[in-house]
Amino acid sequence: MGPGMLPRTVATGIGLAGLAICALAFLKDGPALGRWPLRGPVVVTLAVIGFALTIRTFGLAVAGPLVMIVGGAASPESRPRELVVFALVMTALAIGLFRYLLSLPIPVLIVPGLVTI
Amino acid sequence: MEAFLDHLALGFTVAFTAQNLGLAFIGCLIGTLVGVLPGIGPIATITMLLPITFGIEPVGAIIMLAGIYYGAQYGGSTTAILVNIPGEVTSVVTTLDGHQMARQGRAGVALGISALGSFFAGTVGTLMVAAVAVPLTRLALLFGAAEYTALMVAGLAFAVVLARGSILRAVAMIGLGVLLSTIGTDLDTGVERMTHGVASLADGLDFAVLAMGLFGFAEVLRNLEAVERRDVVSQPIGRLLPTREDLARSIGPVLRGSVVGAILGVLPGNGAVLGPFASYALEKRLSRTPERFGTGMIEGVAGPESANNAGAQTSFVPLLALGIPPNAVMALMVGAMTIHGVVPGPLVMTRNPSLFWGVIASMWIGNLMLLVINLPLVGLWVRFLAVPYRLMFPAILLFCCIGIYSVNSSPGDVVVTAGLGLAGWAASKLGFEGAPLLLGFVLGRLLEENLRRALVLSRGDLATFVERPISAGLLAVALLVVVVAVVPAIRRGRNEVFTT
User: Rounded distance, CA A14 to CA A5, Å?
Assistant: First the structure.
C-alpha cells in the first residue's frame, strides 16, 4: 500500500480493458475506421505551438494574429483576407478584455529593446 | 423551516449585491452567446470562458460560472430548436418537436415555452437544492473514508452506464482519467510518480490544461472534419409568448418534467442526462395523441426542457453537499472552484456559509436573468447562428491559447494542451469520449485519498469496504448497476434511449 498501489492497479485495469476491446474486435464487426484527414490537426497544432513560442517574446499582439491566421488555414473554406481582418479585430478585443478589463498578466507587445507593454 | 428561510435570506443578501448581480448577468449573457454557436456544447463553453473569471473573487467567480453554465444550456436549446443541432445529449430530445415547431413558423413559441418552463423548473430545482443541502451535508459528515470511496465508485459506475457508446470504452476512459490524476508528487510519501523527471509535472497535470485540450482543441479538430451543413429555419421566428392554449397544454408537462428532472439530477454519475428522455417518454405515454409527437407538439418541448433545466440545477447537490461531481460539467466546476481556492465538500457550508448560500441564491437569479435576457434578444442569437465555422474556430483557438497561458503564465502548458488536443481527437475518432476521462480525472484524486485513508484506518484490510454497512450498500448498488447494464435486453433499451 504505497504510492504505486492505485496507479498500478488502474493501469492493469486499463490494460485488461484494452485487451478485451481488441478481442471483441475479432468477434464483432464495428463501424468502419473512416478517413483520417491530417490537414486540420497538423495546422492547428503548429499554430498553437507558434502561439506558445511567441507569447513571451513578442506578446499577444503578435501571437494572437499568428495562431488565428495560421490556425485558420486548417479549414478548406477559409478566406485569407477576411481571416486577417477578423484575426486583428479579435486580437484587439482579446487584449482589451484580458489585459485591461480583467487585468491578467499577459504581455501585449514586446519589441526587444524598444517597446514592452 | 425557519433555518431554511434564514439560509435563503443570507444567500439573497450575498447574491443581490450590485457586483454579484452584474456577474450573474454577464455570465448568463456570454454563456448564451457562446452556447448558441452550433457545435459548442456547455462543456466547451465553460472551458473556454473559465479564464474570464480568474481575476474575480471566489463567490463572484462561481456565481459567474454558474451563470455561464445556464446560459450555455439555454443557448444549446436555442440551437437545437432553430438549427436542429443538439449541443449535447440533453438537448437531443428538444430537436425532435422543437425543430418541427420552428419549421411551422412557431420557433418563437418553442423558445418562449422553453424559457418559461426552464425558469419554473429552475425555481423548483433551486428550492430542492436548498432543502436537500443541509440534511445531506449532515449525512456526509457521518461518512468516513470508506463510505466516500464507495460513494465515488458508485458514481463512476453510474457514469459508465450513462455514457454514450461502448461501456468498455467508457470504463477505459474513466480509468485513464484516474491514472492521469495520479501524476505528480504523492502527498503521503513525497515520491514523484510518472513525472519522468519533467519538473513541471511534479505538481501534477493541470486540470484546465486537460479540459481545454480535450474540449477546446479536440472539439475544433473534430468539427473541422465535419462538412458544414446547417438546417437553419428560414421561417420567421413568430410571436414569442405562447397562446393561452399553448400554456394550457404545457402546464402539465412542465410540472412533471421539473419533478422528474430534479429527482434524476441528484443521482450520482450524470443522472441529469436521463431527465429529458424520461420526460419525453412520459409525455408521449400520457398524451391522447402519442402518434403526433415528433411533428411539433409543444408538450414535447415543454417537458424535456423543464426536466433538462431542473436536472442541471439539482446536479449541483452532490457537488455542493458531498464535494463529488456527478458529471463532466460539474467536474469542470470543481476544477474552477479549486482554482479559486474553494474545495467543494460538506465543510463549505459550515465554514463559508455566505459562499454556499450565495451560490444557491444566484442559481435562481441566473434562471431569472435567462428569462429576461433570452426572450428579448432572440433576434441577436439568431444572427449568431449564422456565424460560419471558418471564423468561429480561429477565435476558439485564440481564446483557448490565452486561457491556458493565463492559468500559470506558462507557454509550456500551451504546448502540452495542443498535444492533449491531438490525443483527444484521435481517441474520439476511435469511439472514446472525453467526458468520462475528465470525470475520472477530477474524482481520481479524491478517490485515491479516501481509499488510502480507509486502508490506513483498517490496517490494510480491504474487508473494511464490505464490513461497513453504508459502504457495502453503495458498492452493491454500483455492482448491480453495471451488471444490469451489461444484460443484453437492457443494453438494447439503453441504445434506444441514446439514439432517439
Answer: 14
B35 touches B85 (CB < 8 A): no
What's phi and psi for B193, nearest 5 deg? -115, 130
Pairwise CB contact (< 8 Å): B175 & A105: no
pTM confidence score: 0.85
| Selected residue of A19, A51, A66, A69 to mutate for chain B interface (largest B Cβ count, 10 A) | A51
CB contact under 8 A, A10 and B178: yes
Specify the pLDDT at position B490. Answer: 61
A-chain residues within 8 Å CB-CB of B431? 30-31
CB contact under 8 A, B412 and A91: no
Name which of B48, B398, B455 to mutate to probe chain A: the one with the most chain A Cβ atoms within 10 A of its Cβ: B398
* pLDDT of B489: 56
Q: What is the mean pLDDT of residues B258-283?
A: 85
Taking the mean position of all CA atoms in its chain, how far away is CA B386?
26
Q: How far is CA B491 from CA B162, B265, B453, B498, in A?
A: 11, 22, 36, 11
Q: Which amino acid is at B435?
A: A
Q: What is the pLDDT of residue B181?
A: 92
In percent, how much of chain A has pLDDT > 70?
Answer: 99
Please give the pLDDT value at position B500.
45
Mean of the per-residue pLDDT values of chain B: 85
CA B338, CA A84: separation in Å to the nearest integer?
A: 37
Chain B CB contacts of A40 below 8 Å: 220-221, 224-225
Mean pLDDT of B295-322: 89
The 10s digit of each residue's pLDDT in B418-430 is: 999 999 999 988 8
Contact A86 B182 (CB under 8 A): no
- Distance between CA B296 and CA B106 in Å, rounded? 9
How far is Cα of residue B452 from the mean position of the Cα atoms in its chain? 29
Q: In the structure grid, which three cell numbers stand for residue B203, read together? A: 505538481
Residues B438, B180: Cα–Cα separation, whole Å: 10
Residue B377: exposed, middle, or buried by beta-carbon count in 10 A (0-12, 13-18, 19+)?
middle
Between CA A57 and CA A73 the distance in angstroms is: 24
What is the dihedral angle through the alpha carbons of B461, B463, B467, B473, rounded to the nearest 10 degrees?
130
Confidence at B385, pLDDT banded by 50, 70, 90: confident
Nearest to B398 among A14, A45, A67 (CB): A67
Verify whether the Cβ–Cβ distance A75 to B399 is below 8 Å: no
The answer to whether the Cβ–Cβ distance between B395 and A90 falls below 8 Å is: yes
pLDDT at residue B484 greater than cutoff 70: yes
> In whole angstroms, how far apart are CA B156 and each of B39, B378, B443?
27, 38, 9
The CA-based angle B223-B36-B85, given to 5 degrees, is 55
Lowest mean pLDDT among B246-250, B295-299, B354-358: B354-358
Write out chain B residues lying below 8 Å of A68, CB-based: 394-395, 397-398
Q: How far apart are the first and last CA of chain A?
A: 52
Strand, helix or coil for residue B208 = helix
What is the reported pLDDT for B1? Answer: 65
| Spatial contact of B304 and B276, defined as CB atoms under 8 Å apart | yes
User: B143-189: per-residue pLDDT in tens?
Assistant: 888 998 998 898 888 888 777 778 888 899 999 999 999 998 887 78
